[in-house]
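--- STAGE predict ---
source: upstream dedup step, 1 unique chain passed
mode: sequence only
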Amino acid sequence: MVRFWISRFCCFPPEDRAPPRSKGEASMNNSEPESTYFRYCRNIEGLLVPIDVARRNGRVIPRFEPSIIHPLLCQDDETPDLLELIEEICYNLTQIERSTWLRALDGQCLLAIAEQDRVSHVAIYERIRGNSKGHGGMIAKNLYVRHWWERRNRKHKRP
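--- STAGE serialize ---
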């Protein structure tokens, strides 16, 4: 995704670029991206942002800031709200249950979560539902999980 975003917004020069008109005008190598030549690119809002360059193996390459490469991860003003939201939807859950719950909210299927945790899918279902020994599971501890579980079961039972 990052490679697509960078290649989309940091345009590469056209192959049929005309040669410079005067000797004072610098010539641009056709293999050199415009972001390296002009040292500017556009961020996710469309604003021009100056970029730094570095040398690797004798070639000049652009050095992008993290705010350009990962624009959604660098929004510090929303981080406290996100952490507060995660705390709210994960109340009364252990660390393993939190991990399972957040991955389920991300849209991962329960079988994939079981494979990642190296447990059976039955163990994941028991972690959520509870078991026959009277342990209530995540739905007994957290109303958000209970609501999600009931909605998920209604959706899967429809023909």
